Amino acid sequence: MTADIVSGVEAPDGELIARWRAGDERAATLLVDRHAPSVARYVASLGIREGVDEVVQDAFVRAFGSLDAFRGDSSLRTWIFTIARRLVLDRRRARKRQRDTTELQDGDVVTEYDALDGMIAEEAERKMQRAIGRLTATQREVFTLRVSDGLSYKEIADVVGTTEGAARVHYHNALRQIKETLND
Amino acid sequence: MTDCPNVAMRELLPELLHDALSATDRVAVEAHLASCEDCAAELALLRAAQRTMAGVRVPAFDTAAIVAALPRPGARALQIQPVASQRRRSPIFFRLAAAITFVSLGGMSLAVARSYFGSSPVAIVDSALTGEGPSPVAQQAALDAAPALASADTPVSSGSAASGPSVHTALGDLNDAELESLLSQLDQLEAAPLAEPESTPGGRVVASNGTGS
Fold this sequence. Notes:
With 184 residues, chain A is an all-alpha fold. Chain A contains 10 helices and no strands. Chain A has 2 domains: 1-103, Rna Polymerase Sigma Factor, Chain: A; 105-184, Winged helix-like DNA-binding domain superfamily/Winged helix DNA-binding domain (Arc Repressor Mutant, subunit A, Orthogonal Bundle). The longest helix of chain A has 23 residues, at 76-98. Among the domains of chain B are: 7-55, no CATH class; 112-197, no CATH class. Chain B is rod-shaped and about 135 Å long.
């Protein structure tokens, strides 16, 4: 435990950011290790199937490149999520222009979760996977941020670009939808 | 599965899931869970959903590559500095270029003026300031007639060939007779032809009427 504190594994994001600003590159490694998996999962949940690693890397590069603009009102993870989401939207728009995209729209149930059929053995998890897959894109995004990443409604609103009230409604609608699917 | 009417408690379940509750709230939520089957079932659902989403294969990414691509905090200031210094230097370059251009043009103008007047800048400036200098036509005529004046070997012609200051001084030293003589010569110069001379039937070359006056 003490070794973790010294190495920075347990250090809060703000402290690691300060250390990185002072030239400690190991602090950047710790921050990437801490947040990259959830960012990658979130990007995948938005329907990105290829180039997730590029989006994740670009999100971190942009986040660290604009840390001066990071006011600290939200968490670093929320900040990176917000950037990653914008990058995903940019990619989606670009692909839409190229007409070779598979758009992720409300009602689109073909998601990363569906691609993982067969990878999850237990029936209960498979049902849950299906239930989450049937959510609308917005419901799934909000539910993922709330349940998987533990973001508050305010943080979700910041990431998604909506209001706290709307985020709350989407979360409860998603929860009700999942319950109904599981009860079918 | 039904929804618990205690919405406030339901709102705290995700926080309980992520161990993000204060001690007081945690005690309150756990007490509620002990007596509410709906909230207990919802918490179980949330745990299952969290487990499912966590089980989703995390797309591969290279931490080392990400860290390597990050901007270096120490280098950021160094990267900005040259740009800033370039911006600061830029006006100096412009000023230097303007100064060189000014000096070059000034030198060229001086050389042209010297070749044109055959005298020093002082005389040129003096004549320009007083407005008493010869008109362009007269200047051209003077240049055309310069060989003749030189061959005449008069004090005036030699004086006109002298440097500016000496001319200026010599003019001041002239007496009335000499000035009249000089003026009459100048009158003749102003009558010098501007165009090609015309040949008279007798073969004499006469000046055209274009005197420039």
